[in-house]
Design a protein that fits this description.
By secondary structure, the chain is of the alpha/beta class. Helices cover 45% and strands 15% of the residues.
Length: 166
């Protein structure tokens, strides 16, 4: 028996601004294979409301004071991949999301097509990279202390751009 990709992917959003969920629902309505199934201001409320989803779009700075690391860990434990969707004003939060297993980051300042592209990239199992995310990772204080060789730095830069280990 072969497995088939779902005909419609169930997308959820965690953002404490209701307008983000409403806007995303309107945008996804024009895509036959994507639907917003849930929106909540916290990860816990989202999982309580709708435990079945293919991807969560996660704002990194939430009013409940939760951290990206904690939120991503909870979602990963539920088997749900995460795409960070943020204003990007905090490189530290971007690094925390990357280090915690987010499958990518899209800036809220980018055109909405960038978010759709990021969603599709993550749903295909790839990392959705962006210049902003790469810059945040590249500026990590740990890199300066790590004294990478030129080749290690080259490999690191390729990985943060979404290239595979191969």
């Amino acid at each position: 028996m072969t497995s088939h990709a779902p005909s419609t992917f169930k997308i959820a959003v965690v953002d404490d601004h209701v307008a983000v969920g409403l806007a995303l629902a309107a945008v996804l309505e024009s895509h036959d294979d994507l639907t917003l199934t849930a929106s909540a201001p916290t990860v816990i409320e989202l999982l309580d409301a709708s435990p079945s989803m293919d991807l969560v779009i996660l704002d990194l700075r939430l009013a409940d004071g939760s951290t990206p690391a904690d939120n991503i860990a909870v979602l990963q434990a539920a088997g749900i991949p995460v795409l960070a969707y943020t204003s990007g004003e905090s490189p530290a939060l971007l690094r925390q999301a990357a280090g915690s297993g987010a499958m990518g980051m899209v800036s809220k300042a980018e055109p909405i097509q960038s978010l759709i592209d990021g969603i599709r990239t993550v749903l295909s199992g790839e990392v959705a990279t962006s210049t902003e995310w790469a810059a945040a990772l590249d500026a990590a204080p740990q890199l300066a202390k790590g004294k990478l060789t030129p080749r290690e730095r080259e490999v690191f830069e390729l990985v943060i751009r979404g290239k595979t280990n191969k």
